[in-house]
Design a protein that fits this description.
The chain is mainly α. It has one domain: Rhomboid-like fold (Up-down Bundle), CATH 1.20.1540. The protein is 62% helix and 1% strand. It has eleven helices and two strands; from the N terminus they run H-E-E-H-H-H-H-H-H-H-H-H-H. A two-stranded antiparallel sheet has the order 1-2. Helix 6 crosses helix 7 and helix 6 runs parallel beside helix 8.
Length: 309
């Protein structure tokens, strides 16, 4: 019975793996692509002959290695989604263990309290607070972007993230997009901490930053499509402003701070992926610096939880 091409390919792969395990003939090393500029270089080359980037070390090589662990499309968006969901799950578990979990009340508005997180848990996990707390503990400017207060809260924010995030990530590149998302959130919680008067969390400050970013792009480009996009964005902002006025518990100052921060970054940054080697290096630096800040903030919070447990 003849094997299909797909089965033959899989059996060939298995045969090659076992051949390598038992000391059989190995396939000759193949040329590699430079992780920075994409130029084809020799299999044993340590540096790219085109741009001089290291093939094994450096930000470009680290970014290429990390990309293998993430989805091929929109890796930063899926990373933000995963981290937000993991932190929500951890905060919900901590709420249940602390006895702060309560069943939602009846009526339509009771739905918004489904899966509500104890405010004491959110504060321990790094929620934004009134000045000067955010400046004495600067990780409180980073962590709120990935924390959420209820199932509806995270559900709505992640829906918006997955709706607009991949397009913006494709436009700016994953590294710069991640930088924009986190910095917009920081800008939102700086204003919230200075002017607002309550504990605040949620990815909406960063999402408003993405809307502000797109709004800035529409002011730099002309055409009917840009005008239509600008009109849609303005409608979104009107809806969000009305919700902020009508519904309690929404941090309008964080929204405004994120919107302004995103708009300013949209005015300054080129609205296209990095093109030259210099631009790619700068983008990698922004992305990795942002990742280090987020990881450091997570580490500080985890250490604080360990100390108090």
């Amino acid at each position: 019975m003849a094997l299909s091409p797909r089965l033959r390919y899989k059996f060939d792969q298995i045969r090659e793996q076992f051949s390598g395990i038992f000391g059989g003939p190995r396939e000759a090393p193949r040329p590699k692509l430079c992780p920075s500029c994409g130029t084809l270089v020799g299999a044993s080359a340590a540096k790219c002959h085109q741009c001089g980037a290291s093939m094994n070390f450096g930000m470009a090589a680290a970014s290429r290695s990390l990309s293998r662990l993430l989805p091929t499309t929109s890796p930063a968006t899926y990373g933000i989604l995963s981290l937000s969901c993991l932190l929500y799950g951890a905060s919900l578990l901590a709420t249940v263990r602390s006895g702060g979990f309560q069943a939602p009340s009846g009526g339509f508005f009771g739905i918004f309290n489904l899966g509500a997180i104890d405010i004491r848990v959110l504060i321990r996990l790094g929620a934004s607070m009134r000045w000067p707390a955010d400046f004495e503990y600067p990780w409180r400017l980073v962590m709120p972007t990935f924390l959420h207060g209820s199932l509806m809260h995270i559900g709505f924010n992640m829906w918006v993230l997955m709706d607009i995030g991949p397009q913006i990530e494709e436009l700016y590149g994953s590294a710069r997009y991640f930088f924009i998302y986190v910095v917009a959130g920081i800008g939102g919680y700086i204003l919230s901490g200075l002017v607002g008067g309550h504990v605040s969390i949620g990815g909406s400050a960063s999402l408003l930053g993405l809307i502000g970013l797109l709004l800035a792009v529409t002011t730099k480009r002309s055409g009917a499509s840009m005008q239509m996009l600008r009109s849609q964005l303005i409608k979104w902002l009107v809806y969000i402003a009305i919700m902020g006025i009508v519904m309690s518990g929404i941090d309008n100052f964080a929204h405004l701070g994120g919107l302004i921060t995103g708009f300013l970054m949209g005015k300054v940054m080129a609205d296209r992926p990095p093109m030259s080697q210099q631009e790619r290096t700068r983008a990698d630096l922004l992305g990795w610096t942002t990742a280090i800040v987020v990881i450091a903030s997570l580490g500080i919070v985890a250490y604080g939880l360990f100390q108090t447990s």
